[in-house]
Write a structure and sequence with these properties.
12 helices; Butyryl-CoA Dehydrogenase, subunit A, domain 3; globular; alpha+beta; Butyryl-CoA Dehydrogenase, subunit A, domain 2; binds flavin-adenine dinucleotide
Length: about 375
């Protein structure tokens, strides 16, 4: 189904901004590990920080299809930037929208959706990744405060964010048989709270414009008012945010694959071997035809999942399928794009070398490909 005029207008606006301000800088940001604060403000001004947040909460008042369109465009310019924006939208804003009280929405969601603040999401721990209910970070109630202690791993924007949604255990894991899942609660934690510490910054394969931090909570005191919903709801809250998050990662995968494909297609029409542009060698043209088909197939899966979500229908399976297919497709397509460049694909003169590195993590974060298969498998049972 073609995009509506409104969605196309959003696409055109974000594409123009990305082509002007992001794509020309992506290689330098990668080299210098530069966090693109100014360009993120520009994206926020276009409504990219709270795309599906209603206008009354200072969001753009659009939908998940618009979010998919926007994240594809940003990722086509720079993968790291798209990850920062993706996390701010989902799970951060989507969780506050679904679970925050009116006061919490006013204090945190509105500035996050406007882009006055940047959000992070702290679920993963050094020993709890795919198994989210294994988190051990603790939140102990002391009067009208909670005291957080523990370590969170791989936190996107952990250094640059102003506020984080943090999952922590309010009941000991082994306090009774069911406390594993029900003992986790969700907190809104300002990153300038005493005891929020950036313990280390990860050295990543790609996405160097996005910081990924290990966060240590050392007697971090959080007012009771920052508890989201009720104690024990944390895992449900975290998982609810990941559905939209998977739509975001699928969109990022498609954006990066598209950028690699566009570069390879243009190159194939310029590069001459055996007296003709390599595009005219059927093996090269077939490879490009296959890449274009794969990208379009992933986009259709993604838009289907986003439309279901916008219609208020269950889409856990469809979002998982879109994320699984798009992220695995993107690795294949980016690798094929590199191959099209020959030796020049392997060096940093052309963008494909960076995109190949940037895209790989899409098969890992917001649930690995194996985890997506578990979710899809469960839906088939
Ligand atoms: C750049 C980056 C940014 C990230 N950003 C965030 C963030 O902002 N917030 C956050 O909370 N987390 C974030 N993550 C963490 C990410 O979500 C986890 O890395 C991911 O969920 C996998 O967890 P793990 O690394 O502990 O791997 P593990 O869970 O240890 O998995 C290791 C391997 O075992 C497989 N495996 C595990 N269990 C099963 C099973 N039951 N069946 C089959 N295979 C299985 C996995 O698929 C994987 O291949 C980020 C990670 C990266 C790399």
């Amino acid at each position: 189904m073609p995009l509506s005029e409104d969605h196309r207008a959003v696409q055109d606006t974000v594409r123009a901004y990305v082509q002007d301000k992001i794509s020309p800088n992506a290689a330098r940001w990668d080299r210098e590990h530069h966090f693109p604060a100014a360009e993120l403000k520009g994206l926020a001004a276009l409504g990219c920080y709270g795309v599906a947040v209603p206008n009354e909460w200072d969001g753009a008042g659009l939908d998940y299809l618009a979010l998919a369109v926007i994240l594809e465009e940003i990722a086509a310019g720079d993968g790291g930037t798209s990850t920062i924006v993706s996390v701010n939208n989902c799970p951060v804003c989507s969780i506050l929208m679904a679970w925050g009280s009116a006061a919490q929405k006013e204090q945190w969601l509105m500035p996050l959706a406007r882009g006055d603040l940047l959000g992070a999401f702290c679920l993963t721990e050094p020993h709890a990744g795919s198994q989210a209910d294994a988190v051990t970070t603790s939140a102990v109630k002391r009067g009208d405060e909670y005291l957080l202690n523990g370590v969170k791993q791989f936190v996107t924007s952990g250094k640059n964010a102003n506020v984080a949604i943090v999952m922590a255990r309010t009941a000991a894991k082994d306090s009774d048989k069911s406390a594993g899942k029900r003992g986790i609660s969700a907190f809104i934690v300002p990153t300038d709270a005493p005891g929020y510490q950036v313990a280390r910054l990860e050295h990543k394969l790609g996405q160097h414009s996005s910081d990924t931090a290990q966060i240590r909570f050392d007697n971090c005191r959080i007012p009771q008012a920052n508890l989201l919903a009720d104690e024990g709801m944390g895992l449900k809250i975290a998982l609810s945010g990941l559905e939209g998050g998977r739509i975001g990662i699928a969109a990022q995968s498609i954006g990066m694959a598209r950028a690699a494909f566009d570069a390879a297609l243009a190159y194939s029409k310029e590069r001459v071997a055996f007296a003709k542009p390599i595009f005219e060698h059927q093996a090269v043209q077939f490879r490009l035809a296959e890449m274009a088909t794969q990208i379009e197939a992933a986009r259709q899966l993604l838009h289907h999942a986003a439309r279901l979500k916008d219609a208020g229908q269950p889409c856990l399976k469809e979002a998982a399928m879109a994320k699984l297919f798009a992220s695995e497709m993107a690795e294949r397509v980016c690798s094929a794009a590199l191959q099209t460049f020959g030796g020049y694909g392997y060096v940093s003169d052309f963008p494909v070398e960076r995109i190949v590195r940037d895209v790989r993590v899409c098969q890992i974060y917001e649930g690995t490909s194996d985890v997506q298969k578990i979710l899809i498998g469960r839906a088939l049972a």
